[in-house]
Amino acid sequence: MTATPHHPDLRSQLETLATEAFRPELAEIDRMPTLDIARVMNGEDTAVPAAVAERLPEIAAAVDAVAARMARGGRLVYAGAGTAGRLGVLDASECPPTFNTGPGQVVGLIAGGPDAMVTSVEGAEDSAELARADLDALVLTPDDTVVGVSASGRTPYAVGAVEHARARGALTIGLACNRGSALAAAAEHGIEVVTGPELITGSTRLKAGTAQKLVLNMLSTITMIRLGKTYGNLMVDVRASNEKLRARSRRIVALATGAADDEVERALTATDGEVKHAILTLLADVDGPTAARLLEDSGGHLRAALATAQG
């Protein structure tokens, strides 16, 4: 590999990373029976939640910081390359149907753009400049949060995104799977979930990818809980965009209120299918417009609106 001023010897860099380490005890894995390989792989995966558990205080601190900014109208932006980028896009794309987030409220940026979701875009992950351009297109504000995601913790696109976002005054989080990473160091909130060497050398779509998915689940889900997008453990901001979700909406209203099916149907009809509003009409015995006003005044927090209504 040709040396560059920034990365004199990328090969020697990679050799120091736990996620890239070679495991000689698995050198004959291709000769093992399939069930044995599956057992080894499953055993490897059990270590991931424990690695995440070690970083829970850092994750919680990051969530509180994100939620405070999103409550003021800020956005949550993931930035990564390859598997890390795809996981960010996945998490962002699941927030609208789950939590009824607005367009652009949770954003996933992947090095190389949408094409990189399914194909490798040559050189994209090596470009900090590309990250800066992608973020500038969003016109960052101090209420926004940018989460750089990279298993190695050295990917220029992810590190560049965090450095640029921090310079623009946005909150920054660096999620990596190696200790002492440049990504965590560049961010205000560094989260290093050390998952160790992979079953297949350097294949960080495995344990490292699983760890990243678990952490991103926490970042988005707990943030949404803090923003009042749930009532207890019910998805009261679910967007009923298909028949399955409409059925789920009816079930959520029933679980939250104990109301009979016909009452649930009437409440949902009176509130244009808005689950949170329907629950409030039933529990507080108010009409749809009053429920909407109470929720607006409480910033969308159903418990707070209910407390106000019950006075």
Describe, in plain words, how this protein is organized in 3D:
The structure is a single chain. Helix 5 packs parallel to helix 9. The N terminus is likely disordered. The chain contains 14 helices and five strands. With about 300 residues, it is an alpha/beta fold. It has a five-stranded parallel sheet with strand order 2-1-3-4-5, with helices on both faces. About 50% of the residues lie in helices and about 10% in strands.
Fraction of residues in H or I helices: 40-55%
* Structural classification: alpha/beta
Number of helical stretches of at least 4 residues: 14
Described by the principal axes of the CA atoms, the overall outline is globular
Q: Taking Cα atoms only, what radius of gyration do you get, to the nearest Å?
A: 22 Å
Give the SSE string.
Answer: HHHHEHEHEHEHEHHHHHH
Strand content: 5-15%
The major beta sheet can be summarized as: 5 strands, parallel
Care to give the gist of this entry?
The N terminus is likely disordered. Strand 1, helix 5 and strand 2 form a beta-alpha-beta unit. Helices cover 51% and strands 8% of the residues.
